Each structure stands twice: as structure tokens, then as C-alpha cells.
């Protein structure tokens, strides 16, 4: 049997190339960097081993560039033993929550702009959607925001209007 025969390649399991292993290791290190960058509250939601948590916490104390690089290699090595699918699922949940907050924020911005640019019908539509709003304050902030815009002043009242809308909507 020759070494180049097709049968010999089909029977033996293929090992990943050195380049592929290096790419996978870099991907694990990148995931480790994402974990390190998370606020502590979000990091606590991740299903991480005690060893990895200790390594992540240790990263903050490393000041040397070369030391940090070597430490990230260690974090990548520890990541091989973690449940990567579960970690990625939590990251996906974080991303969905961020998108939901962004959509809600943009909705509030549109309300603010509609109230400032619009007429009485926009105000009535907002009050219909949010009947608990302080109507007097809402009307005054709209008037002040329009006045500030016309005079080229900073949008102080528009910011206050946005805050009122946000607080009223509960976002």
C-alpha cells in the first residue's frame, strides 16, 4: 500500500491543521477577551468554571503587555474546557436584550420628536397611549423645546421631555 493511496486518507481521521488549531485558539482567546470586557454583573450570569473566573479576575491586575498576551493564551487554554455553546447562548441573550433596549430607546426618541415637531394630534395620541403622564409638565416641556429650537439654544427642555417620556413609559 502506498502512502498516497486514496484509501489511506479515508480510513484515518483527519486531524486539524496547525493553522486551523491556531485559528480556533485565537477564537477562544477572543471569546475570553469578550468575557473580560463584560461588567461583573453580566459576567456572573455566564456558566464559567472557578478556574476561568479566577483567570478572568487576574487579568485586571496584569500591566505588562507581554504578560497580558501570555495570560490571554492561558485564558484561551482554559476556555477549551468550558461549555462554549452555553457561553455563546448567554452572549446571544445579552445581544437580544441590548437590541430590545435600543428599539425601546428609539421609540422614545421618535415620540419626543413627534411631540416637538407635531401638533395637538400627536400630543393627544401620546396621552392616549400613556394616560398617567403629567399633562401640564408635558405641554410646558414641548413648548419650551420648540422655543429653544427656534432660538438655536441647547436642547435642555428636549432632554427633560425625553426623560419624562422615558419615565412615563417605564423603559
How would you describe this protein?
By secondary structure, this protein is mostly helical. It has nine helices and no strands. It has helices at about 5-10, 20-35, 40-45, 50-60, 65-80, 85-115, 120-130, 135-150, 155-170. The protein is elongated and about 70 Å long. The termini are far apart. The model has no long low-confidence stretch (mean pLDDT about 90).
Write a brief caption for the model.
The chain is mostly helical. The chain has helices spanning 6-11, 18-37, 40-43, 50-59, 65-79, 84-117, 120-129, 135-151, 156-169.
- Strand tally is 0
Shape: elongated
Rg computed from alpha carbons, rounded to a whole number of angstroms: 27 Å
Name the helicity range: over 70%
Main sheet properties: none
Order of helices and strands: HHHHHHHHH
Give the mean pLDDT: 88
- Spatial separation of the terminal alpha carbons: 71 Å
**Class inferred from helices and paired strands:** mainly alpha
Helix tally equals 9
Instruction: Give the low-pLDDT segments.
Output: none
Tell me the quaternary state. single chain
* β-strand amount: under 5%
Amino acid at each position: 500500500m502506498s502512502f498516497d493511496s486514496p484509501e489511506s486518507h479515508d480510513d484515518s481521521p483527519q486531524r486539524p491543521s496547525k493553522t486551523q488549531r491556531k485559528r480556533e485558539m485565537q477564537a477562544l482567546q477572543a471569546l475570553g477577551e469578550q468575557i473580560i470586557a463584560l461588567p461583573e454583573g453580566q459576567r456572573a450570569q455566564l456558566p464559567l468554571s472557578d478556574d476561568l473566573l479566577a483567570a478572568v479576575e487576574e487579568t485586571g491586575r496584569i500591566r505588562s503587555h507581554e504578560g497580558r498576551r501570555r495570560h490571554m493564551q492561558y485564558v484561551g487554554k482554559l476556555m477549551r474546557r468550558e461549555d462554549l455553546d452555553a457561553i455563546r447562548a448567554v452572549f446571544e441573550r445579552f445581544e437580544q436584550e441590548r437590541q430590545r433596549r435600543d428599539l425601546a430607546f428609539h421609540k422614545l426618541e421618535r415620540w419626543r420628536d413627534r411631540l416637538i415637531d407635531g401638533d395637538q394630534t400627536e400630543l393627544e395620541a401620546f396621552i392616549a397611549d400613556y394616560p398617567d403622564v403629567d399633562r401640564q409638565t408635558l405641554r410646558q416641556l414641548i413648548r419650551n423645546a420648540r422655543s429653544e429650537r427656534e432660538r438655536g439654544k441647547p436642547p435642555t427642555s428636549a432632554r427633560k421631555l425625553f426623560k419624562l417620556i422615558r419615565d412615563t413609559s417605564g423603559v
